[in-house]
Write a structure and sequence with these properties.
With 203 residues, the chain is an alpha+beta fold. Helix content is 31%, strand content 15%.
């Protein structure tokens, strides 16, 4: 399903075509592809090259491990159980170099995750990130040590026809994508001061 973004300025296809579906085909993702996604995440930039990200990975082939992650999902994200792969991104909250708080840790985990997402897009896979999971339960079930915090649950797999979804989810799946206008999120050198750019194009 193609839900290319309608953009004011040209952007790369990997970004324009990326979106977060809920319909996943019952088809496994091969190990090499999973390795490529994690490798892309590994090479993301980070503050002081600390690489504060960790990823816990479960596939449907490992029923026990998959259930461990899936059981942390909140009810509204039960659809993610159909994905062949679930991941949990985790942030180390202190610098390894001096054990001081790393206030950029979540930002850097986001960068690594976006690298993973774009690599997935390049491989013809789809990804949906979720805040709707029980973080405390994930810490306990997955044995996260002190100083590490769950960030996002991630469903990964092959796209499926939205007709496979319940009515409410199908409506959300088929709804047009939208974003705030650039002028609402990008400013000049003062808060809400207009940023002067060239003329935009309309699609």
């Amino acid at each position: 399903m193609d839900k290319r973004a309608s953009t004011a300025y040209p952007i790369h296809d990997l970004v324009a075509k990326r979106w977060s579906p809920r319909a996943f085909a019952p088809r496994p993702v091969d190990r090499e592809s999973i390795g490529s996604l994690l490798e892309a995440a590994r090479w993301a930039p980070s503050c002081f090259n600390e690489q504060p990200w960790r990823f816990l990975v479960a596939t449907q082939e490992d029923a026990e491990g998959f259930e461990r992650l899936a059981s942390c999902l909140m009810g509204g994200n039960a659809w993610a159980r159909e994905a062949p792969v679930l991941l949990l991104s985790v942030a180390r909250l202190t610098f390894e170099r001096n054990d001081k708080p790393n206030r950029h840790a979540w930002h850097d985990v986001g960068l690594a995750t976006m690298s993973l997402v774009l690599q997935a897009q390049a491989l013809g896979l789809v990804v949906h990130q979720m805040a709707g999971f029980e973080a405390a339960k994930a810490v306990e079930l997955l044995g996260l040590p002190a100083g590490f915090e769950p960030v996002t649950m991630i469903a990964l797999g092959h796209s499926e026809d939205p007709a496979s979804l319940p009515d409410e989810l199908r409506e959300r799946e088929l709804a047009p994508r939208s974003r705030k206008a650039l002028g609402e999120v990008a400013f000049g050198t003062g808060w809400e001061r207009p940023l002067e750019l060239g003329a935009s194009r309309s699609d």
